[in-house]
Design a protein that fits this description.
Helix content is about 60%, strand content about 5%. By secondary structure, the protein is mainly alpha-helical. A two-stranded antiparallel ribbon has the order 1-2.
C-alpha cells in the first residue's frame, strides 16, 4: 500500500472514532503534524483508531499486532523505521493507569521519534 492508500483506509476509522468520542477535526486533524491536544476525548479518539486497526489487546497497544499490521499495510520504505520506533514507544503506555492516556503518549512518542514517517488519520 502507498502512504496515500493507507491514509484513505484509515479515514474510515477516523470518521467512526470522531463521532464516537465527540471530537472535531480542529482537535484531531493535525495529529499527523504533531499536534497532540491533551484532552481525554482526544486521547480516547486515538485509542479508538488503534482499536479499529486491531492493534489493541486488553486496552493496551500490542507490539506483535502492530508489527503484523505494519507488515501488511505500510509502504516498504517505512516498515523498518516504524517497527523500531514501536519497540521503544509502546512501553510508555504502561506509565499511565488510564489506557486512553497511555496510548496517547505512546502515539506522541511515535511521532516525535520519526515525524516524516508517522502516519495517522
Amino acid at each position: 500500500m502507498t502512504r496515500e492508500q493507507l491514509k484513505k483506509t484509515l479515514t474510515i476509522m477516523k470518521n467512526q472514532c470522531m463521532s464516537k468520542h465527540s471530537v472535531t477535526n480542529e482537535k484531531v486533524g493535525k495529529i499527523e503534524q504533531g499536534v497532540f491536544i491533551p484532552e481525554h476525548n482526544v486521547m480516547c479518539y486515538i485509542a479508538c483508531v488503534y482499536k479499529l486497526t486491531q492493534v489493541v489487546k486488553n486496552d493496551r497497544l500490542n507490539k506483535e499486532s502492530i508489527t503484523k499490521q505494519i507488515d501488511i499495510l505500510y509502504p516498504q520504505e517505512l516498515k523498518e523505521s516504524v517497527k523500531r520506533n514501536v519497540v521503544n514507544c509502546v512501553e510508555i503506555q504502561y506509565k499511565y493507569d488510564d489506557p486512553c492516556e497511555g496510548i496517547f503518549y505512546s502515539t506522541k512518542c511515535l511521532y516525535e521519534a520519526d515525524p516524516p514517517n508517522f502516519i495517522f488519520p
